[in-house]
Specification:
The chain is mostly helical. Helix content is 80%, strand content 0%. Helix 2 crosses helix 5 and helix 2 packs antiparallel against helix 7 (165-195).
């Protein structure tokens, strides 16, 4: 028998043993899904209460994604520039904001800006700005790698035709780089959607905040957070589906 098959069977036996051990002692927990019973007034009210947070999650994520794409592309262009100060700015920006945890950045923007520059942002604006800055540091590297993946001969050919730098990027570089950038960019979209849950700590009434508030009233954490997991799962699956559909469309258009 091959070594790989032996290891596979051993892992299967261990998994079955763990499952058997977990089921040996019957759990005393009593599920309370009645709090989400849509045929009862209380259940339908709880469902609507949680669903109300979806709009805040989607809107803050979309705004942060748009802003992070703009910031990330500008920072990436600075890194590709031949001017040393712009290169240094790119390195400082990327390394700094990739190193700062999003929750720490979120709290600093919310509590620090009013003290330092006297600017008090709303919780929505704070969430968008913090998410965008954090994500743009990663997207800058995605854009830079995608642009650098375009063969140098393509750029030189465009330059020999007398195209300006802006036209080279728009007509030659970006259409080719987007095929490399899009999968990684899709991952960043998912990252932003998931990390938006951290904005609940400053009071934005998004999905996680709504779940926490409902748990205070109902005190059924397992049921409430299970439904919360399902909500995020559905949102992320939809985003992943749309990104993959766009990838296939770009692949089809490039072959035709």
């Amino acid at each position: 028998m091959a070594v790989g098959q032996k290891i596979g069977r051993l892992c299967l036996l261990l998994a079955l043993g763990l499952l058997a051990g977990c089921g040996a002692e019957k759990s005393s927990y009593t599920w309370g899904w009645y709090i989400f019973n849509p045929w009862r007034d209380k259940g339908s009210s709880n469902i609507r209460f949680l669903m109300d947070g979806a709009w805040a999650t989607i809107s803050v994520s979309l705004c942060a994604i748009v802003l992070s794409v703009i910031l990330g592309s500008l920072v990436a262009m600075a890194g590709l520039s031949r001017k040393k100060p712009l290169n240094y700015f790119n390195r400082l920006y990327v390394e700094s904001f990739r190193a700062i945890p999003l929750l720490v950045l979120l709290l600093w923007v919310f509590y620090g800006l009013p003290v330092i520059i006297g600017l008090q942002l709303s919780v929505f604006a704070t969430g968008v700005l913090s998410l965008a800055i954090s994500d743009s540091a990663f997207e800058a590297e995605v854009f830079r790698a995608g642009i650098q993946s375009v063969p140098q001969g393509q750029i030189e050919a465009a330059r020999s035709l007398g195209l300006s730098w802006a036209h080279q990027m728009r007509l030659v570089v970006v259409p080719q780089a987007i095929k490399v950038i899009l999968p990684a960019l899709g991952n960043q979209f998912v990252y932003v959607l998931k990390m938006s849950s951290l904005i609940s700590v400053i009071g934005l009434p998004e999905l996680t905040r709504k779940a926490n508030e409902l748990n205070v009233n109902e005190y059924r954490p397992l049921e409430i957070y299970t439904l919360l997991v399902a909500e995020y799962l559905i949102l992320i699956l939809v985003v992943s589906f749309l990104v993959r559909k766009l990838e296939r469309r770009l692949a089809t258009s490039s072959k035709s």
